[in-house]
């Protein structure tokens, strides 16, 4: 299989070329965002959606595990988890053992598991299936992403949707407007005596003129940005550099990098200071587990778990944070039966996670049968556009019909 990095996927996608590049994708920095927070702060009760993409096709059956199902055990003799290995959720299902933080959120009713999510006539190509999920257009190819179309309907401010990745994902590309990218590069200010002297320049002085006061304020703002955003940005950048070569290893042929915890810490800081962004996009890659899946996937799910559970705990401490809803999806699940390399091949439906204080925790949607299959694959029981429609209406207060067209399905029960 040809190696496919996330950057290649994003830049080769027709959505990006015809959408984001056509309208001029914006790269922003900390100053743009903090200035926006000061001039037009996010209302404390405004809903914020954080979209987490798991690139590569995460194996849903080893994420939300039907460990007690004989058909599952028979299909994966060496790959299946035993009932005593998983974190019990009830109804014969359990979370992967690497997801202890999310299990705690489940117990607190702040994690929703939407089962059997997919779309009609599924496509097993990474390119096509990810394009379908990001454009919300299963039947026809679309020039625009679903969040990009929301941007088109609500104005031309790119700061309303921000990706904390270096390349704009297709979902943020509209026909007239594209979201913004915040580069993951740290804010490094001088330390020691020089640093103390530099910080002192931000101290206001009696009788100073307007220009001097503005200059002093800019120094203070710079230090504030470094305190709020700097550590998260550095962590994300360091992890991205580390993962550059790791992308060529097991599970990474469908693109995506690491550093999710740093990216989510950055988003939490932006929410807390009142940046008026309503949608954030971030991702974790490496889920294309054709071989030696169990160790690779559990490592990735543990990284996902630590990042998401820490993010949720932090958000719960502020009014703005409690309005955030996190949506976690992958382009497809995996085949029910393991392959000959102790891995799984491209499949169809899988579980989707929604978490936050505004979420009605528990199971949503019907668990697909492991015996009533479509050519060896799970049959979807929930259309992903049902979830998108509810996120648009219940979190963003938007008219979902203007974004996902005549699709009428909704999964409103997932949001309180």
From TrEMBL:
Residues annotated as signal peptide: 1-22
Keyword field contains Signal: yes
InterPro entries referenced in this protein's UniProt entry, alphabetically: DUF1501, TAT_signal
Transmembrane segments: none
Compositional bias segments (type: Basic and acidic residues): 234-250
Highest taxon, organism lineage: Bacteria
Coiled-coil blocks: none
Record's keyword terms, sorted: Signal
Residue span of region Disordered: 234-257
Name of a matching Pfam family: DUF1501
UniProt xrefs under PANTHER family: BLL7424 PROTEIN (PTHR43737), DUF1501 DOMAIN-CONTAINING PROTEIN (PTHR43737:SF1)
Name used for this protein in its record: Uncharacterized protein (DUF1501 family)
